[in-house]
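Pipeline run #58 for the internal structure catalog. This entry was flagged by the ingest filter as a single-chain record with no existing model, so it goes straight to prediction. Upstream metadata was stripped on purpose; only the residue string is passed forward. Reviewer on rotation: M.T. Logging verbosity set to normal.
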Amino acid sequence: MPKTKSNSDQNSNKRWSARVTRESHALVLEEGVFTWKDPRRIARSLKRSAEASTQRKTTPFQSAMSMLNFYINRAGKNLDPIQRQVLEQAKQELRRLYKRI
């Protein structure tokens, strides 16, 4: 008879993205960075975190953009539309900071 996953295993698998956001070793994020209302402040914080990281596997730009996209994608339909707009603007600001526009 095949083993089935217990409820605790299933619950922990459902929340893996929250754990990654909280415990990521690639970037040390400032508290509440994705809830801020200023896209420029968010982008600057992500840039600082990415450039300070010694454990990232890609360029600072890619690390910062990946973390921002990860948060937006994981929040999905639960992300407030206004905050989604702020985070999308933060992506543009990151591109500007790294001269990728």
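catalog note: The two ends are 57 Å apart (CA to CA).
catalog note: The chain has five helices and no strands.
status: ready for reviewer M.T.
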